[in-house]
Design goal:
The chain has 16 helices and 20 strands. It is α/β, with parallel strands linked by helices. The strands form 4 sheets. Strands 1, 2, 5, 6, 7, 8, 9, 10, 18, 19 and 20 form an 11-stranded mixed β-sheet that branches. Strands 12-13-15-14 form a 4-stranded antiparallel β-sheet. Helix 11 packs across helix 13. The protein is globular.
Amino acid sequence: MMTRNLFLGICRCLLAMGFLPITVSAQTMSGEGLPRLVVSITVDQLRSDFLEAFSQSYTKGGFNLLMGQGRVYGSASYPFSPIDRASAIAAVVSGTSPYYNSIVGQRWLQRETLRPVWCIDDDRYAGLHTLETASPKSLSTSTLGDELKVVTKGKAVVWAVAPYSDAAVLAAGHAADGALWIDDERGVWCSSQYYMASLPEWVGNTAIQVNWNDMESQKNTENKKEQRYKAFKNSSEVNAEVTSMALRCLSSTGMGTDEIPDLLCLTYTAGTVASTNNYVLQNTYVRLDAEISRLIEIVGRRIGSKNVLFMLTSAGYSEPKEDTDYQTYRIPTGTFYMSRTADLLNMYLGALWGQGKYVETTFRNHIFLNHSLLDTKKVSLSTATSRAQELLVMMEGVRNVYTSLQLLTISNEQIQMVRSGYHPERCGDLVIETAPGWRVLTENTGESEYQRASFVRFPIIFYGANVEAMRVLQPVTTDRIAPTLARIMRVRAPNACSAEPLF
């Protein structure tokens, strides 16, 4: 007769080989090493160089604790380009790139209306304490929180707290109990009816009290009341409000008090790093350190440090100063005019196939062709983009031009970063890459942005819940965060995540 140990050994082998299905329920999600609470922290525009530069001014319980006693991956990056706050947070929680999760940025051009849309805008759901309408409908994959909800049959508690609506809603995902952010106009914590009919009493309806005279970011505004809270949300002072609301959420919802793991997603900011003022930089990081220290200490005391896992990473980009003046210092630069380029392209394609508005519109460095006109002219999209590419690559300042067909059919190291950041429904038919230092300007809207290829170094840190402390020098990518946390929480990775866990 087969012994029990032998039987279990065979089952483990079959399970590892994929011959037995994995069935997990809330009742079986308990045991040694399983955290009761996972706190996922993304810091907007966190950079390792500044993080390390001010380390002597930190507390013992913040960054120094994480760096000294955590599992630190010191060279992390996002596997796609371009990166902003929305695309970064969506990538962290979904474990995949915009090519699959559809969040190519905070804004993109809607092909049907040819108008820019906000990444979480959804007028089906009214705001709570805000006029902003929001939902995660544009996020086309599941998230870590979604999978946790599914496997626990809704018993796990999932919340997201952030200064910004895009960060809160995307981090919360589709199935969360709630997402909280600060309203731009009134300065109150708010949410969307997508998550709940009304806000819980513990959220409150009182405007955040801000000392405007002491807020360094306010010095750069016109002191208009309607702009004040926008400036506050990008200052170091907002991090204290995020910590306080996170702690209020924990104590009011009972997160971390039973054997079923819960998930709290937080977004902090280090956004004032665009400043050249050394005091402002240091103050930003020192204040951020203090808030992370406060969070770790209080959560650990309430739930038990062995029952909580903290993960901290960066949004992986750093916004350059808007008044960057390369010409004064004789640094190679230039301006690439999108509207002029569209006019030139219309003339060129018109000479080939007859007059017409072949370029329907442009958005950022993307060109959208008129598909209806091409059909009328009996010109395939492949032919049109190929001929347009021939002209565009000869223009001054252009380093590369990618066609939609290339990005959808070719996968190699040379274009992989651009391909991973591309989505056919939300990006153009042609993507122009200008030389570093060049500014892409859309004349009719006045929108511009500098093209930068510089690498922003940042870490991924895991701390608590019996995670072994070590420093890993090998470069890693952020799409491996979600499967790592999923493995630790004993749930499935998000449904478009194909990356390996970090450990």
